[in-house]
Amino acid sequence: MANGTVYQSIEDCLATNTALYKFYAAVMIVIFILALPLNASVLHLFIFKLKFWKSNTNNVFLFNLVLADILLLFCLPIKAYNFIHGERRSDNDKVCKAMLFMLFLNRGASIAFLAVTSIDRYFNVVHPGRKNLLRALKKSPQISILIWLLLLPLTIPTMLKNFDCCNSHSQNPDESKQDALVKDVVDSLREVVFFTQILIPFIILVYCTVHIVNRLRKKTVGDRTKLKRAVFLVTSVMVVFSVCFLPCTIARMILLIARVQEWRESFQDKAAVAFDGLMVLSYMDCLLDPLVYCFCSTKFKGLYLSTYFPFLLKGDQVPTESSMGNSTLPPRNNVI
């Protein structure tokens, strides 16, 4: 196939390597099969066992994080279906825009609540006695509702035509100068949304993680094993975020540079295929979030096992729902 034909296929949202896209689809199906029951069971515990809305801890944030992940998961079978049929997105305009809305809203919410949870953990560990706005607001669901509402207008630019096929700043010789200028402005706006949605939370996460780790390492009081486990847990959060989101961000940056600089069409094709694959990798976050944030607590893990797998407890004490108020966030004076 000539390079020009391959490039046109990418522009028209057609998969140029059907075998590779079928592999991408298989990965998404596996993620869906593993992550859906895990997130659904965690969500069940938050609602029916922990009654998160009555909690003054960051259970509210974690509930919204899991909710965003589970809503995002429902998009994966549709994307997998498209990939299997050689399409990078649905050829139905309404389905495509609905998918974009769900993908970017819920992924944005997942990242936002991840960042807010890290900030909350930062204040609890690094500044345990300091009053802060977040600590006051998290006692009510208003801050969670506000985060969802703020994400809505940021999602609108991502629903515009062609974004899902990485066609920002593509060249169209038939466009007038005015149309090309408007298109460039819209393209730039949605790219700003895409990058800030990942880079700003990543900076926040790195800052909070570094300070939390330094604070924990300076502690001289407490169980050293628990201190080491706390350092491992907060570090693992940053690692998971980096692995899931930074590769697709770098790939998109390279793709945009290739388009603006008008690099070879064959390179743009490979960059677009790589970006699609790394976006699939980012969906792994839906599977890893419950493991990192919820199961880091031995009490939550005990409650989970006692509810769904009681035969694995082997006579250990089963935690009660009333003891789980601070299960997913370290108490103010503790490290775990």
UniProtKB/TrEMBL annotation:
The chain crosses the membrane at residues 23-48, 60-80, 100-123, 143-160, 192-210, 231-258. One of its GO terms (molecular function) is G protein-coupled receptor activity. It is found in: Membrane. Signal peptide: none annotated. The keyword Metal-binding does not apply. It comes from Cottoperca gobio. The gene is gpr31. PANTHER family: 12-(S)-HYDROXY-5,8,10,14-EICOSATETRAENOIC ACID RECEPTOR, HYDROXYCARBOXYLIC ACID RECEPTOR 2. This is 12-(S)-hydroxy-5,8,10,14-eicosatetraenoic acid receptor. It comes from the Eukaryota. Belongs to the G-protein coupled receptor 1 family. PROSITE patterns: G_PROTEIN_RECEP_F1_1, G_PROTEIN_RECEP_F1_2. One of its GO terms (cellular component) is membrane. Coiled coil: none annotated. Residues 38-293 form the G-protein coupled receptors family 1 profile domain. It is a multi-pass membrane protein. Keywords: G-protein coupled receptor, Membrane, Receptor, Transducer, Transmembrane, Transmembrane helix.
